[in-house]
Input
Amino acid sequence: MQGVQIGTPEQSEYDAFQRFLERAYGHSRGFFLRHYPHLNRREQTALESSVIARLDGEIVSHVGAFPLNVVAGGTHIQMGGIGGVATLPKARGRGLMSRLIEEAHALMRRRGDLLAVLWGDRQRYRSFGYETCGLKWSLALTPRSLGREGVEPCSVEEVDPSDPAVTGRVESLHRGLAFRVERPYLRLLLQKEGVRVFLGEDGYVVVRGEGRDLRVLEVVGLAGREAALISGVIHKTFANSATLDVIPHEPERAESLLAAAARWSLSPQGMFRILDWPRLALALQPSLQEKAEELAPFELAIGCVDGDETSVATLSWDGEQLSVTGGRHGNTYVECRQEELVARLLGGPFVSPRGLGAVDKLLPAPLHIPDLDHV
Output
């Protein structure tokens, strides 16, 4: 497109970049610094996660591809979170968003990301290969429901999120979670606008909300004390309810919370897209291995059809070890569109009657991205 340049923001235009984002969304000055301080750092390494379009030298469109290092049990998945998708009104209708999303995919592949995730409109982003998937339970806890389960509130105190001692305590407890997102900028994460941190001897609770209904962004407790910690926060803030997400892959942590829930619903984790199928299959090997022990030996090559390209990974189980290799091996081969494969992998909607044979019994693979880490 004539006059359009694609690149990343320079440090010298950092302030102009922030004004562009605020204008594109119609937000107040400093909105993104207040709500996403960990993503909007001034250093060049942070700016390199953004792809922008300049029209006659002016920033008019942006897509962010922010690093997310996800730990899921014994699995580590390097991902990219798409966020800050914005175009100025005067530059809309020129295909800039589509071009920048493809550039963001290329950036993430160069970086070595295996999956991309975003939170947005399904119809809008399915055209870019994303599908809504990943399962979590959304729970609502009330003083009555907690009391009926005999949950007594822990003693908690609201603390200053900017206090280094608070950051250290949260970081130490968070690091012990089997399902988490690594947080190199935890200090900034805890200073997001509206975030409140409560500490107790048994753990911590991070919430958002000032009224009668709190949103629990994260709770980490020792010896299954999560429900008691949330009860303590409800008691301290005079709240009517607290909502939070748990995943079925952590039954020890989820059991007391599910029992104490006044109501629950099943929700998706987000919209996901596979960026590198063979390497993703290899990364998922530890979690798939855990579920394979009761299966008979098998070998299955799975092709991931992404546009005009097909990548293949072969999963083999010999009764003792699950191995994953790139390429097509053995006699059994199944092909899936990328959108269907990611839904099968993480748990989501698909209508194809053709399955993945024994591999279906290993799925969905566990994954959790807490609200606090959304981009």
Observations:
- The chain has a mean pLDDT of 94.
